[in-house]
Design a protein that fits this description.
Distance between the termini: 53 Å
Structural class: mainly alpha
Number of helices: 18
Number of strands: 0
Shape: globular
Order of helices and strands: HHHHHHHHHHHHHHHHHH
Radius of gyration: 22 Å
Largest sheet: none
Helix content: over 70%
């Protein structure tokens, strides 16, 4: 059980970012090999087994994001089926994010104190069951769809706050950065697969409900892999350079320490801006592109049997997958190389990616009516730049926060980025879109321009 102790200072991390300014590459490689051997000795987990654990965590993270954006991939069909407008459509994502945001601190607290493997097992099992149940909701029970999407937040809250801290306890230094980049590939790739799988399964089955039944099936496999492959490493053992064992402070003390950690707070605020943009883009981009083609006359509307075109969801999903791989990988590599000349490379790369994406995403919105191809090109560039942030922000958190506060820090960052970011942006856009449409005659052009005005 937790015991009182003299707190470490988060402003002086237990393990800092690896020193890449060393000119002797041979010495650096030797140090890495020694660190690897030390980690195996401390954790009792071989490097190959640790890599397999990361693979399982990657797979589960992939499923989480597939499920989150499956709904976005069939959003026109959901609107058609439940006979709802944009404001209610936006609520589907907002309810999920709010639930996830509220539950994250609870799992963050538990993740810093109890067995992380079993916490993830409970959350993922619950998430899979609720997601499967949501695919059988009758047409007249839209409120039940909102409820189930809210409950899905249990799974992601139990996982997102905990999984990165397990990776942090399996690896150190540059190898940790690489493993984190692998883990965070799952966010954009999983998001893209959500659109792709949703569109293709709906087309094959002739019913959008089947799109919601894919990830629960894979969730069973994820739970089995979690039970039989993942091992719980000693918390913070690979980073303790003292004979004094890591112990725990109270939750209030943890929050006070985190709020005074400027590196953590500022990186979290920057990531909040990323969340605001990606949240609205992820839910509304396929619907916006679909409406743009309807308005230009290059596409016919959904026929009476409720099967809407899936081309835009498929294309957007492919773009999201590719840009995610490029962005996450490029961000880690660029930062690693820049650190040889500038120790502040991590925040500088994140800032450049966020600021650089803004003009391209704006151009994507304003060019949609004139050229869908140009819109896709601008989205590709904008999403690539945004994806530079994913792994780097996570790595910053892990090397500026001590091991016994990391799950709480993950939860704190989740609450902040979602509360001020993507918890409100999808619903806000839907609400504004509905208000704009009320003052215009009903038409495909009106529906398109209502979302266009939000983008500007």
């Amino acid at each position: 059980m937790p015991t009182p102790w003299l707190p470490y200072a988060d402003t002086t991390p237990v393990l800092s970012q690896p020193d890449d300014t060393e000119d002797d590459e041979g010495l650096q490689s030797k140090n890495e090999r020694e660190d690897e051997e030390d980690v195996q000795t401390i954790t009792g987990i071989s490097t190959s087994h640790a890599v397999r654990i990361v693979g399982v965590l990657f797979f589960i993270n992939l499923l989480n994001y597939m499920d989150r954006f499956t709904v976005a991939g069939v959003l026109p069909d959901i609107e058609h089926f439940f006979k709802i407008g944009d404001s209610k459509s936006g609520l589907i994502q907002t309810v999920f994010i709010c639930s996830y945001m509220v539950l994250a601190p609870i799992f963050g607290y538990l993740g810093d104190r109890y067995n992380r493997k079993y916490l993830m097992f409970i959350g993922i099992s619950f998430w899979s069951g609720v997601t499967l149940g949501s695919s059988f909701i009758p047409q007249q029970y839209y409120w039940l769809l909102l409820l189930t999407r809210g409950l899905v937040g249990v799974g992601e809250a139990s996982y997102s706050t905990i999984a990165p801290t397990i990776i942090a306890d399996l690896f150190v230094g540059e190898r940790r950065s690489r493993m984190l980049s692998v883990f965070y590939f799952a966010i954009p790739v999983g998001s893209g697969l959500g659109y792709i799988v949703a569109s293709q399964v709906k087309t094959l089955a002739g019913d959008w409900h089947w799109a919601l039944r894919v990830t629960p099936g894979l969730g069973v496999l994820a739970v089995l892999l979690l039970l039989f492959v993942v091992r719980e490493p000693p918390r913070g053992a690979v980073e303790t350079h003292s004979e004094v064992p890591l112990q725990y402070t109270s939750w209030i003390t943890d929050l006070r320490a985190l709020s005074s950690n400027r590196s953590f707070v500022l990186s979290s605020l920057g990531f909040t801006a990323v969340a605001f943009v990606t949240g609205s883009l992820a839910l509304w981009a396929p619907a916006f592109l679909y409406r743009a083609r309807l308005a230009s006359g290059s596409l016919q509307p959904c026929p009476s049997e409720e099967i809407c075109s899936t081309a835009d969801s498929l294309t957007f999903g492919i773009i999201t997958c590719v840009t995610g791989v490029l962005g996450v990988g490029s961000g880690v590599e660029i930062s690693r190389r820049l650190q040889r000349r500038n120790p502040r490379a991590d925040p500088l790369v994140c800032a450049a990616g966020l600021l650089g994406s803004a003009p391209f995403l704006f151009l994507a919105v304003v060019s949609a009516q004139g050229s869908i191809v140009a819109t896709y090109v601008f989205i590709f560039i904008g999403e690539t730049l945004l994806s530079l942030n994913w792994a780097i922000v996570a790595d910053i958190l892990l090397y500026v926060v001590i091991p016994t506060r990391r799950s709480t820090a993950e939860a704190f960052q989740i609450v902040l980025s979602h509360l001020l970011g993507d918890a409100g942006s999808p619903a806000l856009i839907g609400l504004i879109s509905d208000q704009i449409q009320r003052n215009r005659p009903e038409s495909f052009m009106s529906q398109f321009r209502s979302l266009l005005s939000n983008g500007r």
